[in-house]
Amino acid sequence: MRKTARTTLTGAAVLAALALSALTGCSGPDRGEGAPRPSGTGGSGTAHGTGGGGGTASGSARPPAPGSSGGPRKALWRPRPGLAWQWQLDGRVDPSTDVPVYDIDGFENSAADVARLHRAGRKVICYVNVGSWEDFRPDKDAFPRSVLGGTNGWKGERWLDIRRLDVLRPVMERRFDMCRDKGFDAVEPDLVEGYGNRTGFPLTSRDQLRYNRMIAAIAHERGLSVGLKNDLPQIPELVGDFDFAVNEECAQYGECGRLTPFIEAGKAVFHVEYAEPTSSFCSQSRRLHLSSMLKKPELGVWRKPC
Fold it and tell me: Which of 10, 34, 250, 252 is the 20 to 30 Å CA partner of 231?
């Protein structure tokens, strides 16, 4: 099941979006084309099974996260533009797709699943919902009712009051601890643009910036790289805090150019479309060096990369 929801920005959020400077694609060698595989989810780019584990890792080693077992932290993984990926959130991962990066559900997959992907030379991203409460997660009772807002359009989910950092930070720390302890390399925090939706709370763009930066810091404290999911209007302010981007449907809505700051910073943009045929977006994706593919909304195994 797809756990994401496209944000519809209105009012002040739209004005803020229009105020952003125009972004253009960057030049450089094209890495965006690869042959479709019979299974897998997620990603365009040349499909390499090993690929050094999916891009170069840079950055200095981090100190142990608070409460961790100690010892030096590994250098953060920073995926390069155009890197092929697989995105599967529907159930336990199918490891058969020959790509260097997998993005999978953190709760539904075990340390053994992550280790198996690592043995095959993959880097592995931990999907975690940080913007809404889900009634099917094992830690659902950790959220007090006071932080639960309106429904977000998905069964069993309600928006969170992201202003309550005192309540949400320890919950998210435990979730990211889970990702670290299972051996993931990175985190995909979902629904980080509640301020542009009807959440039941008067959230502002400033609230979202503060929350998103907290989320990025929690990941980095644990030696995990972190991706910015959608939230296009705040990319200029957040590109320095995040190590890559994950985007849905930028081609359908004519917004892919707004992801250029990540590419110019040498950071991958993992991109999917659901309704547009590959013939309508792959040419632009290759020009912009996005890691693009066509997926079905349930985000199962099937994929059609550029």
Answer: 34
Q: 231: Cβ–Cβ under 8 A, 6 or more apart, which residues? A: 7, 192, 193, 208, 212, 238
Cα 17 to its chain centre, rounded Å, is 20
Q: How does DSSP assign 71-138, residue by residue?
A: SPPPEEE-PPTT--EEEE-SSS--TTS--SEEEEETTTS-HHHHHHHHHTT-EEEEEEE-SEEETTST
Spacing of C-alpha 51 from chain mean position:
20
Determine contact, residues 149/201, Cβ cutoff 8 Å. Answer: yes
Rg (C-alpha) for the chain, rounded Å, is 18
Residue with tokens 């030049």: 27
Integer Cα distance of 42 and 291 in angstroms: 8
d(CA 85, CA 186): 13
| pLDDT tens-digit series, residues 17-56 | 333 333 333 333 232 322 222 223 333 332 223 233 333 3
Which among 292, 224, 293 has a CA at the least distance from the CA of 78?
224
β-pair partners for 159 = 132
Beta strands in 230-275 (DSSP E): 244-248, 269-273
How far is CA 213 from each of CA 162, 276, 292, rounded to the nearest angstrom?
12, 32, 26
- Cα separation, 193 vs 50, in Å, equals 34
